[in-house]
Design a protein that fits this description.
mainly alpha, 360 residues
């Protein structure tokens, strides 16, 4: 809404600042943080009163986790409140990419909220049907991708782009919708699997979102896109304030999620933010680069896939426990060691992903 003030810059010179995406990105970040920081304690208290015993702890998990019993979950509500309010204030609400990302974020957040609700009320680490959850996620993701495909100009709306090579395009036709929906759903569930330790998921999410925010800004600016030889996608620059809102709200959440966590993100936050990450990558035509930038999430997801597949084939386990962050806990790493080392990996992978912008 505040972004609209830029239209009156000719009458009031001060309003010209609202035309700049960089300014609105910074403002969205600050506003997102302040919103979560100010209202976070009330949200935590309200969730604690309503949830009673809090999020159930896996019985087969590391012994150190049992001391976390009683910690409320659904902390994603805190993040989403800061993100959504900040986006509504600072993003251009006439931009279809913004609405596509919002559709995924809110839709996946609602799925995660229902899953968290079932876990808390049943006091079980099992939510509702995995097949039904995936079906709903694919429906929402497909609708969001359809919006993007209908809006994207330049003749590559249904094409897959490749890092390091600008000229190479693979036109998937209508199969692209299924592929892009898979990217969004895969990103959401990979982040969901990563969310197992205090602060483990939120910082890598902010790192990945920061990288994608930069890509959005560059891909949406024809001058930068031509200089870097990346595909220009008109309008994606408006996703930068969206990313700024996530970073700010994420920092606010981290204030309360730092060990020992006062609240857990839950599926409400992990599915919403993971889906958002995938949706931004699809919008900017950087689907494959997301696998590098979000490489930590890919590793976490692969560890579960490998563990389950190998156990079904041989009856033995590859890892002491999956996802892989629990494997290192079982090896004797402290929780803080796992979290900080995984943050470092996430940062390095994001840097490698960003390097693809210039290596053409």
């Amino acid at each position: 809404m505040i972004a609209y003030l830029g239209a009156y810059a000719d009458q009031i010179a001060l309003f010209n600042v609202f035309r700049y995406i960089t300014f609105r990105t910074g403002a969205a970040m600050i506003f997102g943080f302040i919103t979560v920081f100010l209202f976070g304690p009330a949200i935590i208290q309200g969730l604690r009163l309503r949830q009673g015993r809090g999020q159930p702890i896996r019985a087969d998990g590391p012994q150190t986790h049992f001391k976390k019993a009683g910690t409320p979950t659904m902390g994603g509500l805190m993040i989403l409140s800061g993100v959504l309010v900040s986006i509504l204030l600072w993003a251009d609400l006439t931009n279809v990419y913004v609405w596509s990302v919002l559709l995924v974020t809110v839709g996946f957040g609602a799925i995660g909220f229902y899953d968290d609700y079932l876990k808390v009320t049943k006091q079980s680490d099992k939510g509702f049907s995995g097949k039904m959850r995936l079906l709903l996620e694919f429906i929402i993701a497909s609708l969001a991708v359809l919006l993007v495909v209908m809006r994207t100009e330049g003749g590559f709306a249904t094409s897959l782009t490749f890092p390091f090579v600008k000229e190479l395009l693979l036109n998937l036709g209508w199969f692209y919708i299924g592929f892009a929906a898979f990217v969004i759903v895969g990103a959401a569930n990979a982040v969901n699997l990563t969310d197992g330790l205090d602060g483990l998921a939120i910082v890598p999410i902010m790192i990945a979102i920061a990288a994608l925010g930069l890509i959005s800004y560059l891909a949406g600016n024809i001058n930068f896109a031509n200089y870097l030889q990346i595909h220009y996608v008109m309008g994606t620059g408006e996703l930068a304030p969206v990313c700024g809102a996530v970073i700010g709200a994420g920092l606010g959440f981290l204030w309360f999620n730092a060990p020992p966590a006062a609240i857990f993100m839950g599926d409400t936050g992990s599915l919403a933010l993971g889906g958002m990450t995938g949706a931004i990558a699809v919008s900017t035509k950087h689907e494959l680069v997301l696998a590098i930038i979000g490489g930590l999430f890919v590793i976490e997801a692969l560890s579960v896939i490998i563990q389950v597949a190998w156990f079904k084939l041989t009856g033995r386990r590859v890892f002491l426990m999956a996802p892989i962050h629990h494997h290192f806990e079982k090896l004797g790493w402290t929780e803080s060691q796992v979290v900080i080392r995984f943050w470092i990996i996430a940062f390095l992978l994001a840097f490698v992903g960003l390097s693809t912008l210039k290596l053409r």
